[in-house]
Design brief:
With 74 residues, this protein is mainly α. The chain has one domain (15-71). Helix content is 77%, strand content 0%. The chain is built from 2 helices and no strands. Helix 1 packs across helix 2 (51-71). The chain is elongated, with a radius of gyration of 26 Å.
Length: 74
Amino acid sequence: MTNFVQANDPVVHQGVQRMAQLLRRGVRSWRLAHQRAVEDERTRNAALHDARIMADLSRAMNGIAVDDTRRYRF
């Protein structure tokens, strides 16, 4: 038997490392998007039951729309 082959260093292919990194990024971005969606749903449900919240959201959205239209003037 031969004893000259030793593999003390872990052998990890760079493609595998990159794929794992991309997968981690994807899972993280999905998790953040899911958290935002849950928060938006809670806000929406609260706004449906409270007219003050709905008015605040409406005012904020109108302000955003006005800012967007001002940006496109020539």
